[in-house]
Amino acid sequence: MPQEDLSKLKIDSSAKQSVAGGRKRKPFVIAGALTLLAAAVILYRLGVIAPSATVDVTTVSMIYPAQSLSVLNASGYIVAQRKAAVASKVTGRLIQLLVEEGSRVRKGQILARMESGDVAAMKEQGTAHLANARAMLQQALVERDHAAQENERYQKLIAGGYVAQSDYDMIHTRYLRSLEAVKAAQAAVESAGAALSHAEVNLDYTLIRAPFDGVVLTKNADVGDIVTPLSASAASKAAVVTLADMDSLQVEVDVSETSITLIQVGQPCDIQLDALADRRFRGEVHAIVPTVDRSKATVLVKVRFRDKDPRMLPDMSAKVSFLSRELAPEELRPRLAVHQSALVEMKDKTLVYRIEDNKARETVVAAGGKLGDMREIKSGLKPGDRAVLKPSGLQDGSRIKVAER
User: C-alpha 128: how far from its chain's center?
Assistant: First the structure.
């Protein structure tokens, strides 16, 4: 083989250096990949790059223990059991109105006055007639006494034969007539007294009085209106005011006829008023009206209040919970509670995963007794907090996504 061909078999030094450089870079690439993997594992464990878990949530709220004792719920309205449209018994014009809506009145208090000139004149006339009748009675009594004396004297004279029989008969007849005159005068006095009483009653009818203690709900007439017991025209009014006894307020609710067997008279109730949502009221079943409404297939149940509030008004909407037993005094206050499935029981603590910034935060709580499906929370949470239901597999700081419903 020629000498020049062997010289071509030499290895290029630049190619050797390139291969050596590639071998040196491989350890650095592997180390970088391992570093990134370790960082990814750490971030995953910290929840930074972990996928969001879809969870169901519940809200921590204030509930009343009565909610766990309810056997039936119903809605209705407050109704005054004692209510009256107060009117006049006679027809006349209203000249004075002494109350307005919201006025508290006592039984017998004058609410309004009607014109009374004619009946006042009749009363004065009756007073004069009575005085005249009494004077006539006095005159008849005087004449009777005089006739009695004459009759007695003539009896003695006739017995002695000093006067004629005809004279005695005339005197005796006058005496008998005087007795009847006294009776007529007494009857006239009684008649005049009755006429005066009638005039006084008619005069009192012009004063419209409260039939019982209560509160004025509405004003139905104004000064100048014609008030009549039976309103016969659009210009006349039948009632002056509407009055309600606030001590007779009860809640009337409609209960399905299929559920009426769950209720009995005297059964304890929990009453919630929409207008007074900050308070619950104790009550009990007062009456079950023995009539079924065909159109609604319901029975009317009346619930009386054990607790009263001056802010209660007729026609306020109310919700009634019929309870299985009487509430204890400590059960009348609301309690902070969360659904039982949100609690994680451990040996030495009870946990709740509270939602904060789309993350589950492990929160240690002090749990109390059961309230139906709820559990009382004595510390660790506050009203309005949201907690994860059935938080299996979650850790503190886990990213979450609330399930859509």
Answer: 55
Dig out the tokens for 183 from the structure.
């009776």
Beta strands in 214-371 (DSSP E): 214-219, 226-227, 236-237, 241-244, 249-256, 268-273, 280-293, 298-305, 317-323, 335-339, 343-345, 350-356, 359-371
Average pLDDT over residues 221-237: 73
Q: Which residues pair with 63 in a beta bridge?
A: 335
Query: Do 361 and 353 contact (CB within 8 A), yes or no?
Result: yes
DSSP secondary-structure letter at 330? G
Q: Pull the structure tokens for residue 248.
A: 């007779």
Distance CA 157, CA 207 (A): 64
Return d(Cα 296, Cα 257) in angstroms, integer: 9
pLDDT of residue 129: 94
Instruction: Please tell me the least confidently modeled range out of 188-197, 307-316, 390-399.
Output: 390-399
CA distance 17 to 1: 30
| 42 pLDDT higher than 70 | no
Residue 117 CA to its chain's centroid (Å): 44
Q: Looking at residue 78, what is its pLDDT?
A: 95
Of 5 and 98, the one with more pLDDT: 98
What is the separation of C-alpha 184 from the centre of its chain, rounded to a whole number of angstroms?
63
pLDDT at 30 over 80: no
- DSSP code of 11? P
pLDDT in tens, 234-266: 556 778 999 999 999 999 999 999 999 999 999
Contact 339, 375 (CB under 8 A): yes
The alpha carbon of residue 213 and the mean position of all alpha carbons in its chain are separated, in whole angstroms, by 19
- In this structure, which amino acid lies at residue 219? K
C-alpha span between 66 and 321 (Å, rounded): 8
Amino acid at 394: L
Count of helix runs (H) and strand runs (E) in the chain: 4, 24
